[in-house]
Amino acid sequence: MITADNLPETTRDGKFDLVAYLKAKQQLCEAALEKALPMQYPETIYEAMRYSLLAGGKRLRPILCLATTEMLGGTTDMAMPTACALEMIHTMSLIHDDLPAMDNDDYRRGKLTNHKVYGEDIAILAGDGLLAYAFEYIAAQTQNVPPQQVLQVIAKLGKAVGAAGLVGGQVVDLESEGKSDTSLKTLNYIHRHKTGALLEICVVSGGVLAGGTPEDLQRLSAYAQNIGLAFQIIDDILDITATQEKLGKSIGKDQQAQKVTYPSLWGIEESKKQAEQLIAEACAQLKPFGEKAQPLLALGHFIVSRDR
Length: 308
Ligand code: GRG
Prior knowledge:
Elements: E1 11-12, E2 15-16, H1 18-36, H2 43-53, H3 60-71, H4 76-97, E3 107-108, E4 111-112, H5 114-118, H6 120-141, H7 147-161, H8 166-176, H9 184-209, H10 214-241, H11 244-247, H12 253-256, H13 262-266, H14 268-284, H15 294-305
Antiparallel strand pairs: 1-2, 3-4
The structure holds geranylgeranyl diphosphate.
């Protein structure tokens, strides 16, 4: 079993090996998530929460948090409770997003969606349970980090998921459905909030836990905002070009819901160019961190080259 102390070599021929890095970090996250949420009474709700939380996924959000803490000299152990909490919140947002009242999806991460298995009532509660537990988990489980920094992570995370972040982005997204005149400004608002805000707090929380300076945090925010938007542009492209098997969820949903997307505004090629440009800008922010930034640089490039 891979643990924080026996991570496999992530450099080969002096070059950073992202595939090995992702595999190692994914395994660490899977084990930590499994441990974070054991089965207990009332089993129905814990089973539903575990069903979606342990259904795989790229685990990009916790990995961004761990990579950032480590870049600034912190340890995996310091960041793991927050990393797990970020994945809990991401998962709850997917459960609620898939509900009939929102995107009404049947598949997620290659499995039936939570409400398809447990019903809408339990799916809503599974999302609520994960959201509340995420905050409890950071507060109760974080060790070897000054309390003031833990408090800062909790406050920033609350802002990122609420009406000033994910919730706000989702509301504007719902209001824009079927409106073919949605502007680029509105589209950017939706995605900076619905997708970008969580990716930003993943990186920034990693920085806060490691005791980053205000300048570090500013650079990390800028990096994360750029990768966040690039991530969404690629997500829009994959909704057109990928297969359901590869993505593990229904495709062509944006067109079905008559949503304006980046490829619908710019076309696929230009959208790819814009995403690459955003990643270049993101990576430029990491220059002062030198060699230590390799994982975050590689994760940026992974975001634009991914096929799922
Ligand atoms: C957060 C309180 C609270 C409520 C949720 C439903 C909602 C409000 C917001 C929607 C957020 C959402 C689903 C944004 C889309 C983000 C996105 C592109 C998800 C896909 O992420 P991947 O590709 O998925 O990283 P995996 O499965 O790999 O983790």
